[in-house]
Amino acid sequence: MRPLINILSITIIVLTLSGCYSDNYRIKGTISNANERTLVLEKMQLDRDLAVDSIQLDENGKFSFHGEKLAIPTFFKLKLSESNYITLLLDSTEHVTVTADANNLENTYRLEGSIESKKVQILNERLKTLRTAVDSLLTIYESLPADGNAQEKNEIGRQLLIELDEHKSFIGSFVMDNPRSFASYYALFQRLSDNTMVLNVMDKKEQVYFATIATSLNLLYPESPRVKQLYNYVLSAKVQERRQRITQELQENAEETIPEIKEKNIQGEEVALSSLKGKVVLLSFWASWDEASRRANDHLKKLYQQYEDQGFEIYQVSLDRSKVLWENAIVKDELPWINVSDLRYTDSFPARLYNINQIPANYLISRDGDIIGKNLFGHLLEEKVKEAL
Question: Is the pTM of this model over 0.85?
Answer without folding.
Answer: no
